[in-house]
Specification:
single chain, about 100 residues, mainly beta, OB fold (Dihydrolipoamide Acetyltransferase, E2P), five-stranded mixed beta barrel
C-alpha cells in the first residue's frame, strides 16, 4: 500500500497544493523554530530596522504560527516560504508553501 509521502498527495483540505485553500497577501521567508504542534509550525522571521538616532541597522525577529501540511512536514531548523491565507484558527493566518 502506498503511503502519503510516497504518493506526494495529502488528505489535508488546508494544503495549498492538494487542498482548496486560496492564498493571498504577504509572502515571507523564515526559519522553523518549533514544529512540535500537530500540523502547526512556529516560524521566526528576521528583519532589519534602521535606527535613525545611531544611523545603524538593528536585527529584529517576529514569531508567526503557520499551517504545516502533511506533504511538506517542515522540521525544526528548516528554511521555509510562507504565504498569508484566511484565518485557520485563532493564531494561524499563514501556510507553509515550500521548504527552501
Amino acid at each position: 500500500m502506498e503511503t502519503k509521502k510516497e504518493s506526494g498527495k495529502c488528505n489535508d483540505g488546508n494544503c495549498p497544493h492538494h487542498g482548496k485553500l486560496r492564498l493571498h497577501g504577504r509572502h515571507m521567508v523564515g526559519r522553523v523554530s518549533s514544529a512540535r504542534m500537530r500540523r502547526t509550525a512556529s516560524i521566526e522571521i528576521e528583519r532589519r530596522v534602521f535606527i535613525a538616532k545611531y544611523e545603524r541597522h538593528e536585527r529584529r525577529k517576529s514569531g508567526i504560527k503557520a499551517h504545516n501540511p502533511e506533504c511538506i512536514s517542515a522540521k525544526e531548523g528548516d528554511g521555509v516560504e510562507i504565504v498569508e491565507c484566511r484565518p485557520l484558527s485563532k493564531t494561524k493566518h499563514f501556510v507553509i508553501v515550500r521548504k527552501l
